[in-house]
Amino acid sequence: MKKNINFKPAAISVLLGMSAMMAMGTANAGDAPTSLNQDAVSLLQAVEIAKNETGGIPLEAERDMKKGQAVYEIELSAADGQEIHTVVDAQTGDVILTKKRRDHDDDHDDQVEDAMWLSGVNSGKFLSMEQAVMQAETEFNGKAWSVDADDHFGKLTYDVELLDANGKRVETRIDAVAVAAK
Q1: What are the tens digits of pLDDT across the range 150-180?
Q2: Distance spanning both ends of the chain, measured CA to CA
Q3: What long-range pairs does 18-23 form, CB within 8 A, spacing at least 24?
C-alpha cells in the first residue's frame, strides 16, 4: 500500500512535467515559418542586418512571433563584452530594437562563456554561426529559422532548426569545432 501512495505523487509530477514540456513545444512550434518563402528576409539576412547595425558578432538567432508579426531576435556580442539584443522585422528587414547590456553581476558566467566562444570564432577554432547555418541549409536544402550555440555534454555545437525543401521541420546539431581545410 505504501508503494502505491509514493507512486501517485511521482506519477502526477511526471505527468505535469510532460504537460509543461509539451506546452513549451507547442508555443515554440508557432514561431516556425510554415513555408520556405513565408518571410521576405531570411535568418542569415537578418543576422547580417543586425551585424551591420551593431558591429557585433552573432551568437544566436531565432524567428519569433510578436503581436502577430514575424521577427528575428538576434543575440550578438560586441568586442568590449557588451551583450546586444537586436530585433529585425522578417518582412521588411527593418531593425525594430537594439538593446545593449553590460556588466551584470548575475550574468558573469554567461559573459565568460560568450567571451570564450567569440575567442574561438575569431581565431578560427570554431565555425561562425553563419557558417553553421549555411552548412545545415546545404545539407537539408532548406532555410534555417533558429540557431543557438550550445555546449552539449562537453561538445560545442550549433543547434539549428530549419524547414527542408519539402517544408518539413528539421532539427540538427552542427559541430562548432572548425575542420582545417586540407
Answers
A1: 888 888 999 999 999 898 999 999 999 986 5
A2: 66
A3: none
Lowest mean pLDDT among 7-21, 37-51, 147-161: 7-21
Q: What is the model's pTM?
A: 0.78
The H-or-E segment that residue 145 falls in is strand 143-152
> Alpha-carbon distance 119 to 125, whole Å?
8
- CA distances from residue 64 to 52, 69, 74, 83 in whole angstroms, order as listed: 21, 8, 10, 19
d(CA 165, CA 110): 35
**Type of residue found at 103:** D
Residue 61 region by backbone torsions, left for phi larger than 0, else alpha for psi between -120 and 50, else beta: beta
